[in-house]
Amino acid sequence: MDNIKTSFEQYKRLLAIAEAGLYYAKDPFDQERYEEMKSISLSLLSQDQDEIKKKITFSLEKEEGYPTPKVDVRAYIKKEGKVLLIEDKQTKEWALPGGFAEIGRSPKENIQKEVKEETGLTVTVDRLLAVFDTDLRKDVPQVFQYYKLVFSCSVLDGSFIENIETSSSGFFSLEDLPRLSEKRTTEEQLMILERENLPYVE
């Protein structure tokens, strides 16, 4: 059973990588490769696990397309009363470090991965601070509904390294915020995160 579970987890992880690739890939050849990766994911399960494979296939087909909110995870890191923000390389707008939660990773693992990739910092995840619902915002309409989970984090080590996503990072006070990426982080959300009666849930 442990081997079956391991195979199933590998399948889910490969499927997640393929779907992420299809979402971000621009080159048609890359898209074709990710489509192929997605289509052959079930072959990871060996022939002697046919029954399990059938159950997994049935389950996936049954759930395919069911509309559920997407999950966005963000890190809230403070230093000397200021909050850490990162600058998007393309839009030049700022937001809390984070991004889409990936399948196969826990919320804690997703946060640590995103912070490391976007800031170069290694962090511990302390506690959940807030859950924001993008459907409750009418100022910035979005096609999909997102649950934005914001976690308090503490820095262990590391320093900022420019990467493909972010061009800079810095600590800011609420009185001196840069131009924010309204789809990712708003001034109102940052003010809520300063409250004492947390966690906050919309």
Write the layout of secondary structure elements.
Elements: H1 2-24, H2 28-39, H3 50-63, E1 70-76, E2 78-79, E3 82-88, E4 94-95, E5 98-100, H4 107-119, E6 121-133, E7 146-158, E8 166-172, H5 187-192, E9 200-201
Helix pairs in contact: 1-2
Protein name: Nudix hydrolase domain-containing protein
Pfam families: NUDIX, Nudix_N
Domain Nudix hydrolase: 66-196
Q: CATH homologous superfamily name of the largest domain?
A: Nucleoside Triphosphate Pyrophosphohydrolase
Strand arrangement, major sheet: 5-1-7-6-9
Overall geometry comes to: globular
CATH class of the largest domain: Alpha Beta
The helix/strand class is alpha+beta
Beta content: 25-35%
The CATH architecture name of the largest domain reads Alpha-Beta Complex
Task: Summarize the biggest pleated sheet.
Answer: 5 strands, mixed
Domain count, please report it.
Answer: 2
Give the SSE order as H and E letters.
HHHEEEEEHEEEHE
Organism: Candidatus Enterococcus wittei
GO molecular function: hydrolase activity
Keywords: Hydrolase
Protein name: Nudix hydrolase domain-containing protein
Which tags fit this structure?
202 residues, alpha+beta, Nucleoside Triphosphate Pyrophosphohydrolase, five-stranded mixed sheet, four-stranded antiparallel sheet, 5 helices, 9 strands, disordered N terminus
Describe, in short, the structure shown.
The chain is 34% helix and 28% strand. By secondary structure, the chain is α+β, with helices and mostly antiparallel strands.
